[in-house]
Amino acid sequence: MKYIITKDNQSISRFSLGCMNLPLGNTKEINDILRLALEFGVNFFDTADLYQYGRNEATVGPLLHDYMKHFDIKIGTKVGNEFDSALREKIRWNPSGDYINRAAIDSKLRLGIPSIDLYQLHGGTIEDNIDETIATFEELKRRGIIKSYGISSIRKNVIDYYKENSNIATLMTDLSILKTQGEEFLDENIVTLARGGLMQGLLSNKHENVLEKKFKKGTYGYTYDELKQMLMMLTDYNHSLESIAFKYLDYMNVVTLNGVSSAKQLEQNIGHYLDAESISNDEIKEIRGNIKTLYYENHRE
Ligand SMILES: NC(=O)c1ccc[n+]([C@@H]2O[C@H](COP(=O)([O-])OP(=O)(O)OC[C@H]3O[C@@H](n4cnc5c(N)ncnc54)[C@H](OP(=O)(O)O)[C@@H]3O)[C@@H](O)[C@H]2O)c1
């Protein structure tokens, strides 16, 4: 496993696990996924307070706790969506200092850890009081409640503001070989955590089913027919779609945040990730050359 070091000296595995789609309720399966990931060298696990209204944190944290004696484990979580855990509903977007301070303690308790390794703002707009949010993250860091902070965003204006006015260590953003919009946010001083690298399974050997089930209406930048064409182009290469998708992220020097819903998926993805090493930089550059460069049109100014 290769690791990448953040500006505040945390090492993050280049292949990390996104916990959003874990099969909550099936503890054995989740435990199998976590163990498999750890044995492969994964040291970073991404969750959020909002995922299943606190249940994701409360499940993943204690399960990972059992492995902490033997493995280096870092947990990242996110904040900003105020929710009612009893009613299981979102109340509002709330990036205020007061709320973040309270939410950080709640997340720490649910996760059962003394300090949150990475705390990311779960979105945000340019209208927020961003300076207050930044000051709150800095203070949480100073008090040792969190070790690093970052943002999860696809908004250029928000990302630019944080880059210029804060010490964000990470940026989580949507990036894959077909959804190239995130390329313009890459920055050598900030570790990019790329989500959506397999596009919900579209970039996998299940692409025909996934296209019909999840992409009937296309996706940002592509109609259904354009996606079909792109998949035909990619399947002409002598590599699995997963390996092409992983090699692209590796070539972009980002962390691949892989989301899975079963241990079998993770096992397959690890195999494809290892196979991706057989794809040369020249070949992935050639493949990327066949794909359009996209930009998000909104939230730029
Ligand atoms: N705003 C944010 O901050 C934000 C938003 C989204 C995600 N995230 C984080 O990023 C992580 C990854 O995002 P994502 O879940 O959207 O990424 P993704 O990798 O595009 O999608 C994951 C889904 O792809 C499918 N999949 C994975 N491997 C597969 C395979 N080998 N064959 C077929 N299907 C496969 C599974 O779908 P099925 O469940 O249908 O099996 C899995 O749940 C999340 O877990 C979460 O931690 C953050």
TrEMBL record:
Its EC number is 1.1.1.-. This is Aldo-keto reductase YhdN. PANTHER family: D-THREO-ALDOSE 1-DEHYDROGENASE, NADP-DEPENDENT OXIDOREDUCTASE DOMAIN-CONTAINING PROTEIN. Keywords: Oxidoreductase. It comes from Phocicoccus schoeneichii. Residues 17-288 form the NADP-dependent oxidoreductase domain. InterPro entries: AKR2_Oxidoreductase, NAD(P)_OxRdtase_dom_sf, NADP_OxRdtase_dom. The keyword Oxidoreductase applies. Pfam families: Aldo_ket_red (PF00248). The keyword Ion transport does not apply. GO terms for molecular function: oxidoreductase activity. It comes from the Bacteria.
